[in-house]
Amino acid sequence: MKIRRISSGGEFEAKVGYCRAVVANGFVFVAGTCAQGDNVPEDIVAQCKSSLEAIGKALAEAGAGFADVVRVNYYLPDMNEFELCWPLLVDAFGDNPPAATVVECNLITPKDRIEIEVTAVLPK
Question: Does residue 69 sit in helix, strand or coil?
Fold first, then answer.
């Protein structure tokens, strides 16, 4: 089995010892992804958008897209904010919604409002 690793070059990849995504056995496993960049926005909607953009880049590099996502996990420190993200999630997944789980928990930094993790199937 061939395994391919995709790095975004993010600061936590080196600090924690992981990569943005791994392509293996016909699947793309995208690590939990928070908002990216030097100026992380404070609100959950902007953070969700940033997370989805980073995930989209990793999926594209792997040869997949949001329509290929079969599983998504959302992690939030405040479940009450999740509904604000729903329009972005419907827009991202459209007619191909994945199985989903939502967990309320602490994230890697107190400023993070959402972390998104996906698994996709590589298109044939």
Answer: strand
